[in-house]
Structures are given as C-alpha cells and as structure tokens.
Specification:
The complex is a heterodimer of chains A (170) and B (587). Chain A is of the alpha+beta class. In chain A, 28% of the residues lie in helices and 41% in strands. A six-stranded parallel beta sheet of chain B has the order 3-2-4-5-7-6, sandwiched between helices. In chain B, helix 13 links the parallel strand 12 and strand 13. Classes of the chains: A alpha+beta (170), B alpha/beta (587). At the A-B interface, helix 1 and helix 2 of A face strand 6 of B.
C-alpha cells in the first residue's frame, strides 16, 4: 500500500513476553522516535508461555518501516516481529460497536442497513440500537459513514487484528 | 539448579560477586539501606562513595570503557534514580555496559506518592537498554543475572534493576548465574558467510577505498581492534576513525588519516566523500560524521558491519549490511581474503594515496601559534609530547577542548580514550577519570576539561581525594563555553548570548580547598613546566591553562554542509561560509 509520497501502510505483528511495561516499551518506541501508530491491539495469546500478540498498523517510507521493525526487534522482551503486509496474503479484521439513536424511518433504515452489512443488534431500547460488526477496516468505515445521518451516537472499535493466510504460523 | 535462601539485600551482593564485579559506584539513601547494610558485612566488593549520582554513573562508564567489564552503580530511590538519568542516557548513546541498581519504596507504597518515590522504570525506559522492577524476591537473582547478560551482550548498554525496600528484606531463593538463561534475547554475533564473501570481494575490487571504524571495534574488544589493524594493513587502504573509535587503530600508523566528522581532518573527510568503497566497521553514520546526509559520500558503495540491525539503513542507505560482532566478522573476512589470495588494485590504490597525500599537505590542524597567549592547540600538543610513551588514559568533558584533544592527542591502543560522544554530556570527564583510575591505579589518568564543563561535576574532587586517586584535571580555560561561543560567532553574528562565565572560581585555590594541588599557566613559556609538574605530582592536580579566549576549533564542517564544504580556518569563515538556512536549525 503506497501513495505518491512514498508513504506505505504496514500491518506488523509483534509477539512479546506478557510482562509489566511491555506495551509501554512498544508505544514509547513509536512516540520517542516519531513513528506513526494508526491502530494498535494487544492481548495475551498463549497463557502457558506468557505471550501476548501486538498488532500495530503503522505508516512511513520503506526506510522508516525497516527501522520500525529493527527497533522493535531490539526490545528485549520481543520474541518475533513480522511484517504481514510484506509477507503476502493475510486476513485483517476489526470489531466495531456502534450506537445509533432515533425513531421512525431513520430507525428502520439503520436496521435495514445493519442487515445488509451483517451487523448484529446486541442492545436495543425504544430509541436506540447497539450494533456489533466485524470486518475489514474499510467495511467498518463504510458502515459508520452510513450511520452518521441516521443518529450515530457513539463508536468503539478494537483496531486491526491480522493473521497470515496459509498453514505457517508466527 | 541449587537454590540458597537469603534476604534480598544479601542476594544482590551475592549476584554482584558471582557476576565478577569488584567495584560499585554509589550513594546511599533510605530505600537502599538494606543493601548498604549487606555491603558493610562483606569484603568482596569495593564501594566508591561518589558525591552525586550522575558522577556514579559516569565513573562506572569510565571503568566499563577502560576494562571492557560491566560498570555497576548503586543509588537510592527518587532523586537518587533521577540524578542517574543523564548518566544512563549517556551510556545508552555510547553503548556502554552498565548495571544500575536503584532503590524503590516498598511494593505496597508504589503509586502512593511516597517519600522519595519516583516511577523509576517508567522514567528510565527510554534511556536504558532494558529495565526491571523486582516485585518478588524469588525473581531477584534471575533478574540480576539477566541484567548483566543484557547489559554486556550484543550492542552493550545500561540496564536498571529497581529494588523495592520490602523485597530487599524478604527472604528468598538465590540462583547462580549459570542456571539463568534469558527467554528471548540472543543477539546475532556470527555473520552470514555469503555476506562476508561478497564484502571481501567488494573490498578487493575497490579503487578508492576507505575504512571507517567506530566504537563498535572498541566494544568488541582488543581482538577486534587487532584484526581490524591486520585487515587494514593487509589491504594497504586508508583508515579513519570516529570520535568513539579513537585507539582502535594506531594513530601513528601512516595509513591513519585521523578522525573524521564535524571537526575531523580534511584528508579523512575528503577520503570519505570521494571514496568508491566505504568499509564501515562498528560505526553508525552519526550526524556529526555524515554532515548533510544527501551529500554524504555520494559515489560510494557502502559496507556496514554492525552488531545492531537497527543501526543499518537508519541514516544512510548502505549496499551491503553485515550483522555480527566486529571481531567475528573481521576474523572471517581475513580468513576468506587469505584463502582466496585476493589482491588489491595496486595502480588505483597508488593514485588514491597520491590524492590523499595532496589533501594531507593542506595540514589542516595547523594553527597560528603565539608567544604572548597560550593557544589551546599548543597546550594539547605539549601535553601529548610530555605524555608520549607513558601508561596514559584520557577522559574529556564536552566542547572545544574535547575536539582539540581528539585532534592533538594520539592513541595507539583501544580503551585509553573515554569521551561522551553521542549525548555530549558536560561533566562526564572528571567522574569518568575516577572510574578509569580505580581500574588502573598506577596509570596516568588525565581529564582534559573546559572551565565550564568541569564545574558541572566538580564535587567529585571530594571523591577523588577520599580514595587518593591521582587524577589530573587539565582545564583549557577560555572563560567561555567555547563551542557555544564558536557557533555564536559563526552562525549568530557574534552575539555571545550567555556563553561567557563572568564569575569563575580560582581553580588553583579550588584545588587546594579540596586538598589537591593547583597549578596555573598563563603564558606559553609556562606550559611545559606546568605539565611536567602535573605529571610528576603523585596526588590529584587541577591545572588551569589560561588560553586564548577567541580561538575556534578547525577544521569544521558546519551543520547542513557536506564533507567537501569544510572550513579550514578563520580565513574560510570570512568568505561567508556554506552555512545554509536548513543547516542553522540543526544542532
């Protein structure tokens, strides 16, 4: 993913020891060296070995992207760093919770669109819905845009998690 | 795995001893009292009581740089830890192995704004290679051993171990160093053979080559430096060194072009600019070295040997990166070179040396001497002459005197030149000299200082006296923060804003107040006598060399300029100089 200025967006997976301060180390690296974070997710993925997986979407020139990966690998509690964008096909998903309030035609329209987008209603009152939806970030963006005129109240999204396609693991 | 039960504080001492530590630089306080109590009850570790925690870290840095061992610091919580931050950052920038033990308030008070509480791991996260907060006494021994392993492995650096007071009192199980293995951290030291082959062939085929060696050679150790010298001599190629690399190759060797960079020699910088193959071993293309990055050595193919993959392609795009320890890489390169019986291009090399010879004839370190006033260059030239052949170690503060020392003192061996390169920390030199003198009690240890820098850690004279460390402080006194003054003259129209120190102490009396010997020279004909007296005095000495206030340090590549746009002396400045607007904003 590259634009005219040579800035590319990359999705990077980082496997780290789940120890105090490890997220602060990763975030501090990005802020201290002036790198961008477009989204960042983290959760423990292997309780037995105490490993967490961080998925970070970042942007920069190819030289900066290389630096980001090298700097991440330099952190002592980091086990592995993988550039999913560079390594080939991958699945990227994000979870969205969105609250829409209204009545009448707008309320019905939001429900109709939710159906088209395969969003689920997870909370409902007389004048509001909370929809849950997973998908690629672009799909979530499209849904949020459609909800805007229909009484959008609140948006919460997880940021991207990603995994490579095929049999190989991290 | 054998485990022994003991209180945390004793475990700290045992871990230090088991790691081969023999000296600790520190300052006590409430949170580390249990460790000081344990220190009191033993005689394996020597403790050097500094006068400020910044001094403790610099002293440990000096000790580490000159011995190649890990330097150890022990400070208390809160202000003890925050005072250490400058030293830790300095060690991080210059890749110096340090383990810094900090006291912390008891675990149940962490986060309560307790007395002398600071978020030490939070504060030191960006200025250490790694840090630990020990919350469980049974993890203490492992974390201590890991700290030493991380500090000295790969690209060395400082590691903080934060020790809450209740953990120091609590009994727990000690484990020995050999039973601890780090989960993840395994820096690559052995190079990829394919890259070695490619590099060696590129080196052999060069027409206008230059070796560019850095602090990585010194950190790798004397073997790396010896192998580097062997490869340089085998090829007959010219060699330059960074500020951090001085001593990695003998300065008296005719293949040595001198230091490169902002105040490096004309021949070194032009060789870098005009080379066709650059062989970088353990240097990181620092901005003081490269000058304007888009004009840096435009026509060369670059080989970069570094143990830290993040140093590669950070500032300068290189053609062939080789990741590994300098000694291992050089040993492999030599093996391949000899096995393949490679020959250099003798004809091209002769032409290249002729060109370098022309650059050398500019005699770029020449200065206008005076018989009225002491020129700083003259003072350092005489210092070098008087100390030649002696068992000499030099530290510096930061500024003009540092650059003149780098230009005029010549080092034949590694580990004899200790200076704050990356961070540029004024106040580094005196405590570092203490650490060096502790490591080499009988050697001549000189801190080449400026009158402004020395005041930043002058309190350490008290430490020097307490331990009878015969450190010599050689102050190049021009009453200005000389490098600031120089930039104000060249870049800010001579408006000397706050760079003049209107009230300086009498350094001779100051020395005497500490119980040391004070000497002063104000005329050129006094210089030799004062230096001789300084060297023969078996006690600490402060020399006040009163020098020309207006002297500038040349050659100089102004910031934002390229290697071939250097100023050789005051005459160049008058022509306007190549300082661009973009250059002005650079440091």
């Amino acid at each position: 993913m590259s634009n005219a200025s040579g800035i590319e967006t990359h999705t990077i997976a980082v496997l780290v020891d789940n120890e105090p301060g490890v997220l602060a180390r990763v975030i501090g690296l990005f802020s201290g060296r002036g790198y961008n974070i477009e989204s960042l997710t983290v959760a423990e993925v292997d309780r037995r070995r105490g490993l967490s997986r961080i998925t970070v979407v970042t942007s920069g020139t190819p030289m900066v992207i290389e630096q980001i990966k090298a700097q991440l690998r330099r952190l002592v509690p980091v086990h592995a760093v993988r550039d999913l964008t560079e390594e080939g096909p991958r699945v990227e998903r994000e979870l969205l919770l969105i609250k829409v309030a209204g009545s009448g035609e707008k309320r019905i329209e939001s429900l109709r669109l939710a159906d088209i987008f395969r969003a689920r209603v997870v909370d409902s009152t007389i004048e509001s819905f909370v929809f849950e939806m997973t998908g690629a970030p672009e799909k979530l963006n499209a849904f949020i845009n459609l909800m805007e005129p229909l009484g959008l109240v609140d948006v919460s999204r997880t940021g991207v998690v990603a995994i490579s396609r095929g049999a190989a693991g991290l | 795995m054998s485990a022994t039960a003991m209180p945390g504080a004793e475990m700290v001492i045992k871990a230090l001893v088991d790691q081969g530590v023999d000296v600790v630089f520190g300052y006590p306080g409430g949170a580390v009292l249990p460790i000081y109590d344990a220190l009191f009850k033993q005689n394996r570790l020597r403790h050097i009581l500094v006068r400020h925690e910044q001094g403790a870290v610099h002293a440990a840095e000096g000790y580490a740089r000159t011995t190649g061992k890990v330097g150890v610091v022990l400070v208390t919580s809160g202000p003890g830890a925050t005072n250490a931050v400058t030293g830790l950052t300095d060690a991080l920038m210059d890749s110096i192995p340090i383990v810094c033990l900090t006291g912390q308030v008891p675990t149940h008070l962490i986060g309560n704004d307790a007395f002398q509480e600071a978020d030490t791991t939070g504060i030191t996260r960006p200025c250490t290679k790694h840090n630990y907060l020990v919350k469980d006494v049974n993890q203490l021994a492992r974390m201590m051993h890991e700290a030493f392993y991380v500090a000295r492995s790969g690209r060395p650096g400082p590691v903080v171990v934060d020790l809450p007071k209740d953990v120091l009192f609590a009994p727990g199980n000690y484990v020995a160093p050999d039973s601890v293995q780090h989960k993840t951290y395994r820096p690559q030291t052995a190079p990829d053979p394919a890259k070695i082959l490619e590099a060696v062939e590129m080196i052999a085929a060069a027409k206008r080559p230059v070796f560019y060696g850095g602090g990585g050679l010194i950190n790798s150790g004397p073997r790396a430096c010896a192998l580097f010298a062997e490869l340089v001599r085998l090829t007959g190629y010219p060699v330059t060194l960074t500020l951090m690399g001085l001593g990695a190759f003998p300065a008296s060797d005719k293949q040595f072009l001198g230091m490169l960079g902002m105040h490096g020699t004309y021949e070194a910088n032009l060789a870098m600019h005009g080379c066709d193959v650059m062989i970088d071993i353990g240097a990181r293309f620092d901005d003081r070295v490269t000058g304007r990055i888009n004009a840096f050595s435009p026509g060369s193919r670059k080989i970069h040997v570094d143990i830290d993959p993040s140093s590669v392609n950070k500032n300068v795009r290189v053609d062939l990166p080789v990741i590994g320890d300098a000694a291992e890489v050089l040993a492999e390169m030599l093996k391949v070179w000899k096995a393949k019986r490679l020959k250099t291009d003798a004809k091209a090399l002769a032409a290249w040396w002729r060109q370098i010879g022309e650059w050398r004839r500019r005699d770029c370190l020449r200065y206008q001497n005076s018989d009225r006033v002491i020129k700083p260059q003259f003072a350092l030239e005489r210092l070098y002459a008087a100390t030649r052949g002696r068992d000499l170690y030099v530290t510096t503060e930061v500024g003009q005197h540092q650059m003149w020392a780098a230009q005029f003192l010549k080092f034949e061996e590694p580990h004899r030149w200790m200076t704050s390169g990356g961070l540029g920390t004024m106040g580094y030199g005196l405590p570092a000299a203490m650490g060096v003198q502790i490591a080499h009690p009988d050697a001549l240890v000189i801190d080449v200082a400026g009158e402004a820098s020395i005041l930043m850690n002058i309190q350490e004279m008290s430490t020097v006296m307490q331990y009878r460390l015969p450190v010599k402080v050689f102050i190049i006194n021009n009453q200005y923060m000389g490098m600031v003054r120089q930039w104000q003259e060249l870049l800010h129209g001579g408006r000397y804003s706050e760079s003049y120190t209107a009230s300086l102490p009498d350094f001779v009396k100051l020395a005497e107040a500490f119980g040391a010997v004070g000497l002063r020279a104000t005329r050129p004909d006094e210089v030799d006598g004062v230096i001789a007296k300084m060297i023969e005095t078996p006690a600490p000495v402060i020399v006040d060399m009163v020098v020309d206030q207006a002297e500038n340090c040349f050659p100089m590549i102004p910031s934002g300029a390229a290697h071939n746009e250097m100023l050789l002396g005051p005459q160049d400045k008058k022509e306007g100089g190549p300082v661009s607007e973009e250059g002005m904003v650079l440091v």
